[in-house]
Amino acid sequence: MDRIDTRALFERQRVLARRIADHDQLPSTIRWIAGVDAAFPDGGRTTRAAAVLLSWPTLTVVDEAVHERPTELPYIPGLLSFRELPAVVAALNALSRQPDLVLCDGQGRAHPRRFGIACHLGVETGLATIGIGKSRLCGEHDEPGPSKGQTTDLIGHDEVIGRVLRSRDRVRPIYVSIGHRIGLETAVDWVLACTPRYRLPEPIRAADRLAGQR
Question: Max alpha carbon distance in the chain (Å)?
Fold first, then answer.
């Protein structure tokens, strides 16, 4: 691969972050929710993105798509969205219906430059997106209470950048942050609504499984 101009990519994130809509602009009726994830088989030489479409409120899988392509960017901390995005967009475009809301396996605003994969995908496509991180990328927080639905703020440089959510009783919390066209309170509500049984929301679980298949 050619030498990567990381400074230019960092600046690109800062510029694109100004286009994020951090308030609710959801359709009046939600019918279709997608989950997206990306994996890197073959030692990272291939990017494999999965998109799974679920009906709301049943959370029944109605369609799924996978897109594979050569990986164009090495792993660089904080720039993962540039690596994943082309394949993720292609997988979403292959679905039979456009989702009303997309849950991303990765961060949104809870990112050093406030522009994780959920933000990048939302700005790129115009879709409403939420970031769900399995672990903390940045920021500080207190521990949320032990019961499902309890939360605490994720703080970065005196700014609320996400919410730490206990999605199931007495399990490790998940990290919810906005991507695009949604406010944080609404994002947390939707993540909880899509998490009836397990630690992760159903759209994310479905996309994780599909992305990991060989």
Answer: 49
Closest among 28, 24, 34, 30 to 182, alpha carbons compared:
24
Whether the Cβ atoms of residue 53 and residue 60 lie closer than 8 Å to each other? no
157-175, pLDDT tens digit by residue? 999 999 999 999 999 999 9
Q: Which domains does the chain have, with CATH numbers?
A: 6-212 (3.30.2170.10)
The predicted model scores a pTM of: 0.96
Closest CA to 156 of 96, 85, 108: 108
The amino acid at residue 68 is: E
Q: CA-CA distance, 93 to 84, in Å (whole number)?
A: 14
Question: Tokens representing 179?
Answer: 């991507």
Partners of residue 105 on adjacent β-strands: 132
The residue behind tokens 């799974």 is 52
**Which secondary-structure segment (H or E) carries 170?**
none
Q: Which of 99, 96, 38, 98 is nearest to 69 (CA)?
A: 38
At residue 214, the pLDDT reads 52
Q: Distance between CA atoms of 42 and 84, rounded to whole angstroms?
A: 15
What single string gives the DSSP state of each residue in 141-175?
Answer: -PPPPSSTT-EEEEEETTEEEEEEE--STTS--EE
- Enter the DSSP assignment of 145: P
